[in-house]
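Consider this:
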Amino acid sequence: MKNFINAGGNKTLMNNRALSARIRTETGKGAARRLRQNKQVPAIFYGPGADTVMLAVQDIDLLQLKKAGKGENAILDLTIETDRGEMAKKVMVKELVVDPIKNNFIHADFYEISKDRELTLPIPILLQNTPVGVSEEGGILQQIRRELVITCLPDKLVESLELDIGDLDIGDKLRIRDIALPEGIRAVDDGNLTVVVVNVKGAVEEEEEEVEELEGEEGEGTEEKDGSEEKAAEESK
């Protein structure tokens, strides 16, 4: 079996960008609407052992992050302005809600991270090169999975996994267990699951049934938000 490896372009996410936010006291749809009218975006800060804090950030700052390719899962240095001064927090962008019609920001979730606490999250799988089974043998490439759930420390987190599949022949499968992950990163998904396959034309690979569901993995950032999740959903309407 071929050894499928990363193509070498996996960039870590610890080259942080800075973002400022202020604490807000008003919540609800009306308050959120007023914030957006003033070019601000309602947000939430939370994490293991941390108090949930309702925030407001400038929409221009989020736009600059997005233009820089720093969307969900980006790691930021967040400065929170309070009446007693500033608080510096290391956070991950857990969710960035955008209006699908107006394309403006609706809500943002910031999850506090620690350098010694592992994260569990999905990252994109990017394919490089055309398999010989397609270019020379007339096969069809089918990508079964476009994300891989991984666990790692924040300084090991990468933006994506870039996989070189140029040597795949017709009938070859790339399974999760075949991927040589970067040092410090572990796959959470079952190793027997298929990522890509090169089929004969007309054949279709059916996705295997997931062996197990991933619910509430420790360090995943899915901890309860003390009611803030409901508030965020309400403000996003």
